[in-house]
Specification:
With about 600 residues, the protein is an alpha/beta fold. It contains 20 helices and 13 strands. About 40% of the residues are buried. It binds arginine.
Length: about 600
């Protein structure tokens, strides 16, 4: 069905035409002065010059044409030429009824779906996920789900860092410690051990040790660089060892991402670009795009419109090895070959912007990305501590994601028990309480992140994120839990029965004419859902999903406080109330799904 604002605009456009003006002037929007009116049209002001008339006169003529409108119950021309509008109740009700019957609540099937790759997560092999990985993972997952809801075909790829210096460092450190192992014996031609000799805990100790040594020991660093080169050039023992490092590490990463509610369709890495690199570089050299500069091969990516001079993109270092840029360009090459995407979205820290500018331009210039493939960088802002500096652990270290998640879970658990106590009544069994705390913690963390614009920095504030009031994940979940509890009572469930609400049993409840301002507000919210999805996708803006849900939650809670729902005596009215909150619940479910978390049955 046609989106809500488009539907009501159509009526206004007709009126402009009937009054002899350009129909395009009749665009209607939500009022920016809700105290004065619900919707407004500013077309008369825009048309005044063209028609040489006073805006108020145009507005008055248009208003007259709408005197018997079935869409608007009030159309008022006010100085200097605004059209202030109020919706007809029956029109609004009919619209929402039809909309909520649709599979995606008015979000149309996409007739021109885009094929999209989202490159997010950015985990590095042999290194634990830390605070810096939180935003790319959470944002990427949400952008992916929003894009899917909007009807696009999306593949998420973690694009592991598995081919650079850290690999050389881990291999070198292992070789220093266990030189006798077959992996390091270049004359060895037998089978390498099937099982790795190290665990994830070992890796977590080995990598920082090696990287620390590199900072003070030039000899050691040279060994590491050599190991990267040997690995990339196919040294057999290194490849075998590397495969095992990958396996051990990926298993752990999968567990961590899964705890975060983040799932990738593809677990490719920088190394998957390797088979394409040699030919790609040769082609770049042959065509003259890559040329020798101070020993390295570079591509000049400057453009005339640049305000500052951009450094060239290095595609092959002077020792013959490849770098982060090279693997990213070659990754575009094989994504073009295997997937042929219309759009690739990259999500990492915004400090990587120059890297992506270089990669995108080089890929376009060298004809590796098709002209029609859109390459897009979404750089995220930093997570700060209360002091305004990047968030650190108490002793100044880099906080690990796993521990951050645990801290927020413990906090949620504490709050849950506190709430139970203050409410009185029965307490959740321990296991159930822990499970609920886990789910709400994820909501707290993700919502705390996603409610900020992607590019903005924000302060990591566990107290704030876990609060049950305010613009937080738990507040949304509490509101959902409240709705579910009313629906269950309506259906006659016993106290303490927290099984999922039987939505089918509520099917005979139909949305009724709103009989209060709060009911009306909820209906207007519902009507805006498809607009929200469209905006959130087009602007890559999960925070729009958050603010939509927050607004809906506020309206639902105001309605709840003002309305006797279950004790309403008029049966039809009661059913209409139930329908209204049931419909809101459906959109909450759809919304949190787009944000990447779920709701417990009871809180
Ligand atoms: N592994 C990288 C890092 O830790 C992020 C990868 C982002 N994606 C990409 N295609 N470069 O910085």
């Amino acid at each position: 069905m046609k989106k809500f604002l488009d539907t009501i605009s159509e009526e206004m456009m007709k009126a402009f035409e009937e009054a002899g003006y350009d129909g395009a002037l009749g665009r209607v929007n939500i009022s920016n002065r809700p105290d004065l009116c619900e919707y407004q049209c500013n077309g008369a002001m825009a048309g005044a010059k063209k028609y040489g008339k006073k805006p108020i006169d145009i507005a008055a003529e248009v208003a007259e044409k709408l005197a018997s409108s079935k869409t608007f119950s009030e159309v008022e021309a006010v100085m200097p030429g605004f059209l202030n509008l109020k919706l007809d109740e029956k029109f609004l009700t009919d619209y929402v009824r039809a909309q909520m019957k649709e599979e995606k609540y008015g979000v149309e099937k996409n007739e021109t779906p885009l094929k999209i790759v989202i490159d997010y997560g950015g985990a590095n092999v042999a290194k634990p996920l830390h605070v810096g990985h939180l935003r790319p993972a959470v944002i990427g997952e949400s952008v992916k789900r929003i894009a899917r809801y909007a009807g696009h075909e999306v593949t998420g790829d973690v694009h592991l860092g598995d081919w650079g210096m850290p690999m050389g460092q881990v291999i070198t450190e292992m070789q220093e410690r266990f030189p006798e192992l077959s992996y390091f014996d270049e004359s060895f031609s037998g089978e390498y051990p099937a099982e790795p000799f190290f665990t994830i805990a070992d890796l977590e100790e080995i990598y920082p040790t090696a990287s620390g040594k590199c900072k003070n020991d030039e000899e050691y660093k040279k060994k590491c660089l050599k190991a990267v080169l040997d690995l990339q050039q196919g040294r057999r023992g290194y490849r075998a060892l590397w495969r095992q490092i990958l396996d051990v590490s990926i298993k752990d990463l999968k567990r961590n991402y899964s705890n975060l509610g983040v799932e990738f369709e593809l677990w490719m890495g920088e190394s998957d670009a390797d088979p394409y690199i040699a030919d790609m570089i040769k082609d770049m050299k042959d065509k003259g795009y890559a040329y020798l500069s101070e020993g390295a091969y570079v591509v000049d990516i400057r453009e005339e419109s640049d305000k500052k001079e951009l450094p060239p993109c290095i595609v092959q270092k002077s020792d013959g090895s490849y770098n982060y840029q090279t693997t990213d360009i070659a990754t575009i090459l094989f994504r073009e070959k295997d997937i042929k995407p219309d759009l690739i979205i990259y999500i990492t820290d915004k400090r990587q912007e120059l890297h992506f500018t270089q990669v995108f331009r080089a890929a376009k210039k060298c004809g590796i990305a098709r002209e029609t493939t859109k390459l897009e960088f979404l750089g995220n802002g930093t997570i700060n501590g209360a002091d305004g500096h990047p968030f650190k652990t108490r002793d100044g270290g880099v906080p690990r994601l796993e521990f951050m998640l645990r801290e927020i879970e413990d906090k949620m658990y504490e709050r849950l028990r506190e709430n139970e106590e203050s409410r009185g009544g029965e307490a959740l069994p321990e296991e159930e309480a822990r499970r609920t705390a886990k789910m709400t913690a994820l909501a707290a963390l993700k919502y705390g992140d996603l409610s900020n614009q992607i590019a903005k920095d924000y302060v990591y504030d566990v107290e704030k994120f876990t609060a049950s009031e305010g613009d937080t994940g738990p507040y949304i979940l509490y509101t959902m839990s409240r709705i579910k509890s009313i629906l269950r009572k309506y259906l006659g469930s016993a106290d303490g029965d927290y099984t999922p609400v039987d939505m089918k049993a509520l099917e005979d409840c139909v949305t009724g004419i709103p009989d209060s301002a709060h009911a009306r507000d909820i209906m207007k919210d519902l009507a805006m859902f498809p607009h929200m999805v469209e905006d959130a996708f087009n602007e890559r803006a999960p925070h729009k999903v958050c603010s939509y849900l927050f607004g809906l939650a506020n309206d639902v809670n105001s309605f709840y406080h003002d309305t006797r729902i279950l004790t309403e005596e008029d049966e039809e009215k009661k059913k209409a109330y139930i329908a209204l909150i049931r419909d809101a619940l459906k959109l909450f479910e759809a919304g949190i799904e787009m944000l990447g978390f779920t709701a417990p049955e009871h809180m």
